[in-house]
Specification:
There is one protein chain. By secondary structure, the protein is α/β, with parallel strands linked by helices. The protein folds into two domains: about 5-215, Rossmann fold, CATH 3.40.50.450; about 235-285, Orthogonal Bundle (Arc Repressor Mutant, subunit A). It has eleven helices and twelve strands. Helix 5 (about 140-150) crosses helix 6 (about 165-175). The longest helix has 13 residues, at about 260-270. The protein starts with 5 loop residues before the first strand and ends with a strand.
């Protein structure tokens, strides 16, 4: 399916973008723009993310499934692409604002062209103030960042080093009077130094999807009926009791105190049942 590049009439510019100090003069788009009922959340973070960062993206965006929330990011390597992917997996609208033009030959990074097409095919969109064939440059990314910060009601910052370019977007969000949400990280991690700077300056800490919904003033749905109580086997209870925090597969198997083949089969079955989740041999509880 072909998604042509179209110029957006000035009268149709997103209202929040008209409020920023240097609003765009022109906007090109591909695909679908968000509906007025969709509340946009910009998600930004480090290109060099950690396992913790990916888990945060999956968990927080996964918790927004079924709500009128759209995810905005920049199509870049790292947290940006993870945010788009998580939105797609959870059937949320997602909008990409890349650092260059929107033609297939100009999309940056080129390796994310398939992701851009997935966004379009899912009903999402691409947006840019640059000419369709404009190639991304060092200065175009900070210029693009003001659109990412300006178009959304809030910006969620997930992992950023002390001098990360992501901090530019976070700073712009506060300058534009938008809500800045920050995920706390380990005090020992270099990828948390930038995020913790903003927490010290008064940004809103986020530890659950509910925090995001509260910020966007979205009412939480009440379940129709209480969830059924799970009945776990003694071995499964041991696994869950060990996963108070993510744990490497090898360490978890040692603590289960079962023969390796039995422990491996147990973990595989628990993952198939949705009790646990693994990523890069790191396990965490879903209960």
């Amino acid at each position: 399916m072909t998604f042509s590049i179209r110029e957006l009439p000035t009268s149709d510019f997103p209202p929040l973008l008209r409020e920023i100090p240097q609003p765009p003069k022109t906007l090109n788009y591909r695909g679908s723009l968000p509906s007025p009922h969709t509340k946009l959340l910009s998600v930004v973070g480090s290109r060099k993310y950690t396992t913790y960062g990916k888990q945060v993206v999956d968990d927080l965006i996964g918790g927004l499934a079924g709500y009128p929330v759209g995810i905005v990011s920049g199509l870049a390597m790292g947290i940006d692409s993870l945010a788009h992917e998580a939105a797609l997996q959870n059937n949320l609208y997602t909008l990409s604002i890349p650092g260059g033009g929107l033609s297939d030959n100009s999309l940056y990074p080129a390796t994310h062209k398939p992701l851009a097409h997935k966004i379009l095919e899912s009903g999402g969109g691409l947006l840019s103030e640059f000419e369709p064939d404009f190639k991304a440059t060092k200065w175009s990314f900070p210029q693009r960042n003001r659109l990412v910060a300006g178009i959304s009601r809030a910006t969620l910052l997930i992992e950023a080093g002390e001098r990360s370019g992501t901090l530019i977007t976070a700073r712009m969000a506060t300058d534009y009077n938008r809500e800045l949400l920050v995920v706390p990280g380990s005090i020992f991690s270099a990828t948390s130094r930038g995020t913790h700077q903003f927490l010290k300056l008064g940004a809103t800490p986020v530890t659950t999807s509910q925090d995001i919904l509260d910020c966007l003033q979205i009412e939480t749905k009440i379940p129709d009926s209480p969830q059924l109580q799970l009945t776990l086997s003694p071995a499964e209870e041991i696994v869950i009791s060990q996963l108070t925090e993510p744990m490497h597969r090898d360490e978890l198997i040692r603590k289960i105190n079962l023969p390796t083949n039995e422990a491996s089969q147990l973990l595989m079955m628990m993952e198939l049942q949705g009790y646990v989740k693994s990523d890069l041999h790191m396990y965490r509880s879903n209960l």
